[in-house]
Amino acid sequence: MPDRTVFRGTAFSCDADDRVQALVDHLFVVEDGFITAVLPADDPAAAEAVGDAEAVSTQPGQYWLPGFVDLHVHAPQWAQAGTALDLPLADWLRQHTFPLEARFADVDFARRVYASLVAELLARGTTTALYFATVHPTSSLELVLACAAAGQRGLVGKVVMDGPDNPDFYKDADASAAVADTGWFIRRVQELRAATGAEVYPVITPRFIPSCTDEALAGLGALARDLGVHVQSHCAESDWESSHVRERTGRSDSAALDGFGLLGERSVLAHCVHLDDDDVALFASTGTAVAHCPLSNAFFGDAVAPVRRYARAGVDVGLGTDISGGFDPSLWSAIRQTVTSSRMLESGVDAAQPPAARGVPDSRVTFEQAFALATAGGGRSLSLPIGRLAEGYAWDAQLIDVVGHRPLPIFDDDEPERILQRIITLATPANIRAVWVQGRKVVADGEVVVGH
User: Fold this and answer.
1) C-beta separation of 99 from 419 below 8 A
2) Spacing of C-alpha 58 from chain mean position
């Protein structure tokens, strides 16, 4: 018999068109981790649907939200979060980030950092994360093991950076070694998933074109075609990166990556601040997704990414925290910053300019749209059945409490839509009482449940 649980309460989720729905007092029937039915609690079929299943119900003031999907996390950089963000991107990488990541040759150090990060993300409602590890294949497996142990859905890549401009103390030996190590890493992750059932996936991960030789990028593109696994990288993150790629290849960042076979329906490229109309059309035609990282873009992007324009063109867009380029590991903050940045893009920031000349019209992202990016948009970007509380999707869920341990300022009965906006804008980790990943409870009272 399948493992079967019925979750009851009011939930907020997105429909197939990314419209936010308030499902007031509904039942969610979950079998073997996936939602098999969604019914109003007063539906005549509800009693039969529940049967003798285990029941989990909300208390007054509690709500179900989908688990968040973080599309861009530099896991080793958790050890430097919040530091050196005043530097230009190239200096930040060479002076701080590469020396830190080189330390992950020490497997014990990697194990401590990765376990800490996975626990922090789960406690903040991030049930799925797309991770960059480091160039080290063995210690990168420690991140996979940390995800498996804590119950997080982790998509992890061994970073490739074999180019001559990388520091000698932190790089792949050459292109052939980089591709071979990536193939080895992919096989080990797939074997672990098959043996344990853990929700872990390997990801082909060239850091970005400035760090990789053409030979390595071509080899990784061949792996992507042969193995059909996910691909991640950076793209058009800053003026520096964009100009470097164009001078080197004669093409835009996205066109160059496509030439190496690295765009496609399982590809997620981070930042994408500096895309022109041809780049956007290329993303849409190949099914490549954008990981919008609004907080780190404020430090390193040199501009605000016009994600509403990308979405209107048919590009899948989700959100990323970009630890440590973004100092906050919470997608709650990424949602709020998405809204804030979009308002600044639309209204402009130079008060010396007349209002009509300051900003980019129709760039505004609402709180509901940003919520969709963090949930349904992330699931769609990864081509996985996650990010919605709907039939056929994994039960990845956050239980949010607005009246208990850390009450929100709600003093009268409120409409569900207003409740959701208050949650999005005001909730803290203390309001997340529990988290489930694919039907398994992985966080209770802010702590990862060990041995679930």
Assistant:
1) no
2) 27
Phi, psi of 368 (to 5 degrees): -65, -40
Q: How far apart are CA 387 and CA 54, in angstroms?
A: 23
Residues 375 and 14: beta-carbon distance below 8 Å = yes
DSSP label at residue 263: -
d(CA 88, CA 100): 17
The CATH H-level (homologous superfamily) assignment of domain 68-382 is: Metal-dependent hydrolases (3.20.20.140)
Give pLDDT tens digits for 174-228: 999 999 999 999 999 999 999 999 999 999 999 999 999 999 999 999 999 999 9
The gap from C-alpha 26 to its chain's centroid, in whole angstroms, comes to 27
Distances (CA, A) of 243 to 93, 161, 253, 260: 17, 19, 9, 18
C-beta separation of 397 from 58 below 8 A? no
What number of other Cβ atoms are within 10 A of residue 257's Cβ? 29
- Six-digit token string for 310: 């990308």
What residue ranges of the chain are covered by domains with CATH 3.20.20.140?
68-382
Q: Any idea which architecture 4-66+387-448 has in CATH?
A: Roll (2.30)
* 447 pLDDT tier (thresholds 50, 70, 90): confident
Secondary structure class of 127 (helix, strand, coil)? strand
Closest C-alpha among 442, 440, 438, 443 to residue 34: 438
| Residue ranges of the chain that CATH labels 2.30.40.10 | 4-66+387-448
| 218 dihedral zone (left: phi>0; alpha: psi -120 to 50; beta) | alpha
- C-alpha to C-alpha distance for 110 and 116, rounded to whole angstroms: 10
pLDDT at 452 over 50: no
Question: Which residue, among 48, 4, 57, has the nearest Cα to 26 in the 3D structure?
Answer: 57
Is the CB of residue 392 less than 8 Å from the CB of residue 417?
no
27 within 8 A of 49, measured Cβ to Cβ: yes
Backbone angles phi, psi at 113, to 5 degrees: -65, -45
d(CA 169, CA 99): 8
Alpha carbon of 276 to those of 251, 305, 310, 403: distances in Å? 12, 11, 10, 46
Overall pTM > 0.90: yes
